[in-house]
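TASK: fixed-backbone design
INPUT:
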């Protein structure tokens, strides 16, 4: 079994949780490579508007995952780690959008939309990223699983299969929930 396979990563995470320093030394380079792949996916298509590079996004998310605020966090498996990584990337992108808007407060239009085929928040304006973030905070109170699903699909760019693994649900459930979450968000963001 390869260390970078889903099962290999899960095994290393469990060995780390059990206190293996050797597993920790093996794990972080593997996770770093996986985060780079994830960040490239998130940033794909951003073109000239890109403010964050792949390495910056990875480092910012990595610091949130491993920094002082994250002490005591333990991941059950690869899916759980990437669910947490998706949340970290969401907040990195939200913070970046807030910085970009710091000087442009007049005429803020909070309407946004998540098209069916779009899973690229970096193609969106800072206003759209912040509007989706605010709507997700409201959605979390109604349906927490939908919030996690949108984080994984929209903010982290995970595939349906990766999202199903991270949430511990079936692929059809992810497809159905993604459709429902997008519909709710569309209504919420248009009102």
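OUTPUT:
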């Amino acid at each position: 079994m390869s260390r970078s396979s889903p099962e290999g990563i899960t095994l290393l995470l469990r060995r780390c949780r059990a206190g293996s320093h050797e597993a920790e030394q093996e794990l972080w380079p593997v996770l770093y490579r996986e985060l780079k792949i994830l960040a490239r996916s998130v940033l794909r298509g951003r073109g000239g508007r890109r403010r964050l590079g792949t390495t910056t996004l990875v480092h910012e998310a990595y610091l949130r995952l491993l920094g002082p605020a994250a002490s005591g966090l333990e991941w059950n498996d690869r899916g759980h780690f990437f669910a947490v990584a998706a949340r970290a990337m969401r907040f990195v992108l939200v913070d970046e959008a807030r910085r970009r808007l710091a000087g442009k407060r007049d005429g803020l239009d909070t309407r946004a939309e998540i098209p069916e085929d779009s899973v690229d928040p970096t193609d969106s304006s800072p206003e759209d990223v912040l509007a989706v973030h605010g709507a997700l905070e409201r959605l979390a109170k109604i349906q927490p699983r939908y919030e996690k699903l949108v984080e994984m699909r929209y903010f982290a760019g995970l595939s349906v299969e990766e999202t199903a693994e991270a949430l511990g649900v079936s692929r059809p459930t992810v497809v159905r929930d993604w459709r429902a979450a997008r519909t709710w968000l569309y209504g919420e963001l248009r009102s």
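COMMENT: The helical segments are 6-17, 21-43, 54-66, 78-101, 126-142, 144-155, 160-167, 171-190.
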